[in-house]
Design brief:
Helix content: 40-55%
Low-confidence stretches: 1-22
Radius of gyration: 22 Å
């Protein structure tokens, strides 16, 4: 009789565990950057919050550093529901939502306050819904910060100093036009290949927020770094629409709350880590750093804003004007 009680108890535990497993929601969250970047930290924060708040009903598996999908494959993987959440840079959406090229425009925003006011305002929120016809649901905007220039050939102070240099870019017509306006040669490469391309001289330089520059060890293969802050690199956190619609209202709320809290933390980390990583690049001592003066920045801005009219029809002049007029 004692043995039967033990067997029945084990069967009950097994049945309970099986029911939990069967009803458990699994979210695969794939991204292409290091775990100690703002995006990587926020993804892990989201995982911890959701798993704890749902009491294990929702499991989040985070795959950093392109370990599951590279930046060329992750959107297709999301559409097929092979992953449930990704956070690509805006340029990855521009092939089917051309309005997102807005965020690649150089010198569109002067600072984080102006940027966040636009993203969190009516126009930014309207833009988030533009992905829905493609089977996605926009969840949040995440920061990586403002981009700077690095290269191996020479110090860059004036726009003409970039002429003739080969720069890696994300796939973006705006970024292509930006570097062509400088007389430079833009080359599209996946993020996972940038380090080796810089190391082998396939390209001379790149544009990155300092967090990417340091965590991807680009400071080991670049000689010059110009603090230009010329463009914003952000991410749109999206989920699969069919997956999202399959969730219960309770699970949707937990995920939405987790994303909202993770977004607040992500923005804090982006600002904080930029300062920390910049200090580490300086301490490394082998990269010559130059910071553009306000006067020099104005020259760069006047030069690069000449590409804006090329994209009035593609992006929508109303979106560009709304961003420029956000104060």
């Amino acid at each position: 009789m004692k043995h039967f009680k033990i067997i029945f108890a084990l069967m009950a535990v097994l049945l309970f565990a099986t029911n939990i497993f069967a009803s458990q929601v699994v979210i695969k969250f794939s991204h292409v950057v290091a775990a100690d970047t703002p995006k990587g930290l926020a993804a892990n924060y989201f995982k911890d919050y959701v798993e704890k708040t749902s009491k294990g009903q929702i499991k989040v598996e985070v795959f950093p550093n392109s370990t599951l999908y590279g930046d060329r494959e992750e959107i297709e993987a999301l559409k097929m529901n092979a992953v449930q959440i990704i956070a690509p840079s805006f340029s990855k959406f521009t092939g089917f939502v051309p309005q997102f090229q807005l965020f690649d425009l150089p010198f569109l925003f002067d600072n984080e306050k102006q940027l966040h006011k636009f993203l969190d305002g009516p126009v930014g929120q309207k833009m988030m819904h533009l992905v829905e016809p493609k089977g996605m649901v926009g969840l949040a905007y995440w920061d990586n910060g403002f981009k700077d220039l690095s290269n191996n050939k020479r110090e860059i102070k004036k726009p003409e100093d970039a002429a003739g240099l080969k720069f890696r870019i994300m796939s973006s017509k705006v970024l292509e036009a930006q570097f062509k306006a400088l007389g430079a040669n833009p080359q599209v490469l996946p993020f996972s290949e940038v380090y080796s391309a810089l190391q082998q001289g396939v390209v001379d330089g790149a544009e990155n927020p300092v967090s990417n520059f340091y965590t991807q060890k680009m400071h080991e293969v670049q000689k010059y770094y110009t603090v230009s802050g010329h463009g914003y690199l952000g991410y749109l956190v999206v989920t699969n629409k069919i997956f999202w619609n399959s969730l219960s209202p309770e699970h949707k709320k937990i995920i939405s709350d987790g994303i909202k809290l993770a977004t607040q933390k992500e923005r804090e980390w982006a600002a904080k880590l930029d300062d920390e990583y910049f200090a580490k690049v300086k301490a490394y001592g082998k990269v010559k750093i130059y910071t553009l003066t306000p006067e020099e920045k104005k020259i760069w801005k006047n030069k690069l804003m000449t590409i804006y009219p090329q994209f009035y029809d593609v992006i929508g002049k109303e979106y560009i004007d709304a961003a420029l007029n956000t104060k």
